[in-house]
Amino acid sequence: MNLRTAVVLLLWLGASFAHTQAIGVLTLKQTIALPVDTGKFDHFAIDLNANRLFIAATGNHSVEALDLNASRVTESLSGVGKPHGLAWIPATGRLYAADGLLGDLKIFSGSPLNQAKSIKLSFDADDMVYDAKSKLLYVGHGGSNEANPAGIAVIDTANQTVVTNLPVATHPEGMEIDNANDRIFVNVAGAAEVAVIDGNTHTQIATWKLTHSKDNVPLAYDEEHQILFVACRTPARLLVLDGNSGKELADLPSDAGADDLFYEPERHRIYLIAGSGAIDVYEIDAGKTVRSIGITHTSGGAKTGLLVPSQHTLFVGAPAIDGKQATILLYSTK
Fold first, then answer.
1. Whole-angstrom distance, CA of residue 202 vs CA of residue 205
2. CA 19 centroid distance within chain
3. 99, 235, 278, 299: which sits with the fewest CB atoms below 10 Å from its CB?
4. pTM of whole model > 0.85?
5. CB of 187 within 8 A of CB of 216?
6. pLDDT, tens digit (0-9, with 9 covering 90-100), for 140-164
7. Exposed, middle or buried, 78 (CB in 10 Å: 0-12/13-18/19+)?
8. Do 64 and 57 contact (CB within 8 A), yes or no?
9. Which DSSP letter does residue 203 get?
10. What is 223-249 written as a DSSP string?
11. pLDDT (0 to 100) of residue 16
12. Contact criterion met (CB below 8 Å) for 284 and 290
């Protein structure tokens, strides 16, 4: 072997090693099989005290309570037409579930959990986000037609009533809280824009039009760098926005079918869950430069999950398709 051939070989091996390292950003720690009729999933919530994961099992028209210690479903909350967003509020011991088919917000409490109340919304009640400081829950709903206008219901979780309903251009998708500035970011996918809501006045104070992509479904916020990450489907891209002006700072490729997006402050990493069967992992540095650091392959249709930073765990729901049993995938982010 001559010197030139040796150098080329070393470079190739180095590149292959670097690629292998990038692919291994997430480590699959456990796969939990779910009951055979579970089907497909939407969003998740967690009860850290009892170490149980709540799963919106849209294919089973139920919300499943998964005991993470025993690795099995211990409760199945039936009668939910099409469960979407979930929120568990530890202080009250209540679980909130948006029902997209029946157009309401179901509230479960007690042990075992039972439906205590429902709040009427509009068809396609969807994702939600909870502001622990104000004890307000923001729930996106409507937008399918004139009879069901798009809006964000603001729910007072202390007395379980609707404070107000905020109109938006089209059906609201992902939402995030900016705790430092009392703002709520809302992805309005049909209009290719991000709506910014004032958490004190409950008014829309800004509209950020997207220019590089559309069908913006999930988003995540980095309070330290004041950066908003927006995942789009058409084309499949991760947009990096200035959290104060909405200016698009960067535009990175992603896998197709983004449905969930999370930011891990401790590791300065962004996790994009794509329905095409991948988790795209990005990293942001002190200079606010974002770069892709790896891809973890899951399975087709595995589009939603939940990041639990305190456990360094990313949960992903793999649906029952192509004869496979539905499972929950547990990845370590360490």
1. 9
2. 27
3. 235
4. yes
5. yes
6. 999 989 889 999 999 999 999 999 9
7. exposed
8. yes
9. -
10. TTTTEEEEEEEETEEEEEEETTT--EE
11. 34
12. yes
